[in-house]
Amino acid sequence: MASLNCVHCGNALTKIVTDLLSDWGGAPLFVCFNPDCEYYENSWSVMARQGSPFGYRYYYSEETDNDGAFLVASPESYLDCIVAEEDYVTMERKEENQDTEYDNLCQAIKHAEQVAKGHCDEACAADHRQLARWLRQLKTIKFPHRAGTKKP
Ligand SMILES: [Zn+2]
Q1: Which of the four, 10, 34, 37, 86, has the lowest number of CB atoms within 10 Å?
Q2: Distance between CA atoms of 105 and 21, rounded to whole angstroms?
């Protein structure tokens, strides 16, 4: 594995998480944000000669083991994508928690519907039908992107 320092200036690379909708598809990258990095400083004139308004910074991808030029539109580009390692772990854990929460909600709906169908009197069945409806509404509100997708 390549070292996590800029091969041009030696500065430690900073981890960013790219936008899901960008060409990088949400991949985490290590980028040199040293404003005095020669590679970065020269990038503006190199790109200008090619008629491009962009500059670039040195990047390294742990996932693909690629490195090279990471296009930036301005010195501030991608600064908002910098994440501390702990934040990144928290983000992943949050997603796992959401999966669990979603599964639990689906289970609760299923259970309420089963109770409503069977073994109880009419008042109890009505209660559980109502409960199932509320839980479904909750599911739609909390997980709008998963509405309509069926999970076993
Ligand atoms: Zn550098």
Answers
A1: 86
A2: 29
Runs of H (alpha helix) within the chain: 38-49, 85-117, 122-142
Q: CA 150, 146, 97, 79: dihedral to nearest 10 degrees?
A: 150
With 0.85 as the threshold, say if the pTM is over it. Answer: no
Q: How far is the CA of 72 from the centre of ligand 1 (A)?
A: 14
Q: Residue 116 pLDDT more than 70?
A: yes
**DSSP codes of every residue in 119-151:** SS-HHHHHHHHHHHHHHHHHHHHH-GGGTT---
How far does residue 136's CA lie from ligand 1's centre (Å)?
51
Ligand 1 ion: residues within 5 Å (CB) = 6, 8-9, 32, 34, 37, 58
